[in-house]
TrEMBL record:
Keywords assigned by UniProt, alphabetized: FAD, Flavoprotein, Oxidoreductase
Name of the featured protein: N-methyl-L-tryptophan oxidase
Organism whose genome encodes this protein: Streptomyces prasinosporus
Source organism superkingdom: Bacteria
SUPFAM superfamilies listed in its UniProt record: FAD-linked reductases, C-terminal domain, FAD/NAD(P)-binding domain
Amino acid sequence: MTGRREADADVVVVGLGAWGAAALWQLARRGLNAIGVERYGLANTSGSSYGESRMFRTACLEHPGLVPLAQRSRALWRQLETETGAHLLDPTGAMLIGPPDGRIAGGALRAAREHDLDVRVLDRDALHRRCPAHQGLAAGDVAVVEPQGGLTLPERTIEAAVGAARASGARVLTDTLVTAVEHAGDGVAVHTAAGRVLHAAQAVLTPGPWLGRLLPGLPLEVVRMPTTWFTPDAPHERFALNRLPVFMREIDGGDVLWGHGTLPGRTELKLGLEDGGKHFRVVDPETPDRSVAPADWEVLADHLRWAVPGVGRAPSRALAGIYARTPDGQFVIGRPGRDPRVVVAGGCSSHGFKHSLGIGEVVADLVQGKEPAVPLGFTDPDRF
């Protein structure tokens, strides 16, 4: 390649969280010489791709353009399961609960109408019969039930995607910090903290909360997010996953609860609170404070006391992770400044995991100069 040494690869993927792992899988299976670089170990708890389970739904209230991406992601999850033999997506169904004209249930209904999604609507009484763990429902609340929704398994998905990428010839460097990505002739030079430099025609930047460090021009802020599990005061079938499937629930004041019942063979419910811009604090990704304290769950516990009673005042387990968000809450996916050497995918804004495999495919299309099958113009990095 003009102006520099012989390349180490066609493309280097920086960051192997959910999005980067998916991109590496897609690039390698297409025959590209690809290297994936991860700062920590695979499936770590330092960034955004952790937590044992994540909600999957295609009724995407965040943007109408995300519905086709979620649908494509679901198909790719099944493909990755077939390739690897791993169980990665559990179609338990998903519920979006709240006022029918609200952000959560109302947004799901709008997405369902626009894209002709298979959903059904339960009124408050029907919801309570179906899911008795939900208490304190407002008179007009409804549940938008998506039978195709459910749970994805983040750590298993990352491990499966990277394993499939390796099987297709990708090389993987873990515990390797990338300090800079520079232009080098008509390609890029990826510098590591250990002094190694990887040369490639293109770089894919998927380092999650650290994207702003490698590409400072993007308007990203990093948010510290506690993840909490609760053990019921007493075992009861109402807390089992088949009676309390994965949900988002809008309550008075605009807060949104999310979570699901106990997984088979487990005793804990995973329950949390959406940020909404008022509960979590902006942090430096290098020093985000990984410790957890009562302040991390007090507001959530106050809501659970009446909304999902019987799960205790304090979590049985808690982690503090981080994620990057954008000013408009949408992702940044594309070529900043139309640079032919760099593709970025970041700014998950706490709703990106369900789209991971579809985003990996979009990234691979961009690297190969193809028009992505799923249009994502609203995620253009140059929109700000």
